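Morning run. Coffee first, then this:
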Amino acid sequence: MTSVAPLTNGAVAPGFEAVREVFADVIAASPSTGSSFAAWHDGRLIVDLWGGYADVGRTHPWTSDTLAMPYSVTKAFAATALLTLVADGLVDLDAQVSRYWSEFRTPATLRQVLSHSAGIVAITEPLPTAAWFDWDAICAALAAQEPAFAPGEGVGESAWFFGHLVGEIVRRVSGRTLGTVLRERVCGPHHLDFAIGLTASELARTADALWRPGFPPMDGRGPWHEAALTNPPGGYDNAVINSAAWRASEIPAINGHGTASSVASLYAALESGALLPRSLVTEMASVQASGWDVVMGDERAWGLGVAADDSGWGMGGLGGSLGWWAHDGAYAIGFVTGDLADYDRQTDLENAVRAGLGLPPLAD
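And here it is:
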């Protein structure tokens, strides 16, 4: 693998030098903190780059083990943790949630929760910012919440609370938090530097996150968007999401922290069958529910904890992060950033990878 240009660190395989150049442009254009990008193909990382700064004061360089919060990219990790219990025969995807969580009122199945078709897209009871750090309070509100639509009769991303819905099932079945199961069953054995609920040593190497002016855009969304993403308040607040309390808590829809190489490696491990039975990965990556999303305000197709379409499967995250497996070319990519803005950066980087693999660019 070759060395990299100024402003960045890491390496690329021969033939992928253009990815390094695009990444250097991404880092040079960042007004705040940095990013990392990785691509996996044919059993190895062909790209593993990082650059910029880990702090908004721009005094500490982003390093190979700097952790970043990629918002909804976390959902694939949360889903994988639950699916390990499915693989163990402890959880039935087509059982109602109430079999495992008796207080849960909505007659939704686990499959519907995982595919964002359960109807629990928001909590309408007003909650304070401090509720983010009270697992039991949020789960009690979710258990009592009236759905936005009857389970199985609509689509709506549970943007903030997917991880609580999944995580409370994990806790009730295993006696452990979702973050613990993720460490013990997924990330630890497969050497993925990604965690939900950070330790003191992980906190010390976490990048600051900073929204660019004008992001995230709040218009042009579905009728449930504002309710779904403003209660509790603070999910977009730089001061909240950079706090030690936020980073140490488990908010498994959005507050995982990790490296780009670990995000790409998750998809490679899943596709190889090394992490879950191949039949279960096929279900995860296949469309389970689709339609006009009442939160996001556009057409969505959901697998189990991931978006899925003919091109591949994975999850994007607010602020521009992405984890994705592409069917054509059989490659995985991961992009995580503290410079929260749009998705153009990861699209440019992925197109550079595709060029190195001899594939056409993604359509606009």
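The chain has one domain: 8-356. Good start to the day.
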